[in-house]
Amino acid sequence: MKDLLRIKSLISTEIEALLNQQVKKEALSSSIYLSMASWCNRNGYDFSSDYFFKQAEEERVHQLKFYKYILDMGGNAISPEVTGIKQEYNSFREVFEEALDQEISVTQSIKNIYARCMKEQDFVTMEFLNWFLKEQREEEYKARRALELFEVIGEEGTGRWQIDKNVGQITYNSEA
Amino acid sequence: MITTITTTTHWTDVFKTSAGAIYQCDAERCWYVDFAGKVAKFDYRCLLKLRKAVYHIDIEQTLLNTTKDPDVEIIFICACDHCYVLSLLQIIALKELLEGTFVMLELNHILHERLCSIAS
Ligand SMILES: [Fe+2]
Ligand SMILES: [Fe+2]
Question: What is the ipTM of this complex?
Answer without folding.
Answer: 0.74
